[in-house]
Specification:
CATH superfamily of the largest domain: Galactose-binding domain-like
Strand content: over 45%
CATH topology of the largest domain: Jelly Rolls
CATH class of the largest domain: Mainly Beta
Largest sheet: 6 strands, antiparallel
Number of domains: 2
Number of strands: 19
Structural class: mainly beta
Strand order of the largest sheet: 1-2-3-8-5-6
Number of helices: 2
Helix content: under 10%
Distance between the termini: 54 Å
Shape: globular
Radius of gyration: 20 Å
Length: 265
């Protein structure tokens, strides 16, 4: 292969020893998607590394540049020393809200050391989709033992016009909340699969009648009964026990199956 015309920047990328070290880390744990901002087109990924370190990835899916805010506390990190592994430079101690500037299609990659954990977000209430109000084609499926966790049931067939309404969701304070959504999606698309599969399904979430916001749900596991969790941030909550949260299909396409969700505070 003739690589004489390959830019040096490309060699710098594939030969970055710090990035290679993350891939070859002895702990061998895969990074996880911990926040998805579908409409804003960026994600946050975190993984554990050996020697009590973490890797933090912030991915910009836009072709254009954008600035994003990453709250370390909401990710379970009180403080840490950060190193930019693409830039090969130390960023010093970081805590609280981080404003990060991303160029188009950039993956910002930090290794975090001396990590101090913050008080984790938690919830005492689980909202099962099987106990919610169903409209349209949505229907309940009872699953086999140890599937569709944690409830053993899911709501599927969430097609055009279908929705799942939770009328009495309690939060301790008003504003934007972190939701951990348990779902099932096995819409696998490969060379031998159907032409319209794309490995993802979309679902909208609306709070208290506000404009519904779209979220892209990835593959959850190895079949249509293995649950995955997607962490999203949704605005519009009021300090009460009567918040209405509605999950719906998006633009006539099939949504992922829904097991339930919890509000993390």
């Amino acid at each position: 292969m003739d690589v004489s015309s390959t830019p040096m920047e490309s060699f710098d990328i594939v030969g970055n020893t710090e990035v290679i070290a993350i891939n070859q880390d002895s702990l061998g744990k895969q990074a996880q998607l911990v926040r998805r901002h579908t409409q804003e087109e960026w994600d946050i990924w975190i993984g554990e590394l050996s020697e009590s370190r973490k890797v933090l990835g912030i991915a910009n899916w836009k072709n254009d540049s954008q600035s994003v805010e990453v709250d370390f506390n909401a990710l379970g990190i009180q403080s840490a020393n950060a190193r930019d592994v693409w830039g090969k430079k130390d960023l010093g101690s970081r805590s609280g809200l981080q404003t990060i500037n991303l160029i188009g299609r950039q993956l910002q990659l930090w290794v975090l050391t001396n990590v101090t954990a913050s008080t984790p977000l938690k919830s005492s209430v689980y909202y099962s989709a099987a106990s919610a109000k169903l409209d349209g084609s949505a229907g309940i499926t009872s699953c086999e033992l140890n599937t569709c966790l944690p409830t053993g049931k899911k709501v599927g067939n969430i097609g055009p016009g279908a929705s799942i309404t939770f009328p009495s969701v309690t939060v301790a304070s008003a504003g934007t909340k972190v939701l951990s959504v348990d779902f099932v999606n096995y819409d696998i698309a490969t060379d031998s699969a159907w032409g319209w599969g794309d490995n993802a399904r979309n679902m909208t979430i609306a709070v208290n009648g506000a404009t519904a916001k779209r979220w892209d749900f990835p593959i959850s596991g190895g079949d249509w009964f293995e649950t995955g969790s997607l962490i999203v941030e949704v605005a519009g909550f009021e300090q009460s026990a009567t918040n209405e949260v509605v999950f719906s299909s998006f633009e006539g396409a099939w949504a992922p199956d829904l097991v339930g969700f919890k509000v993390l505070e």
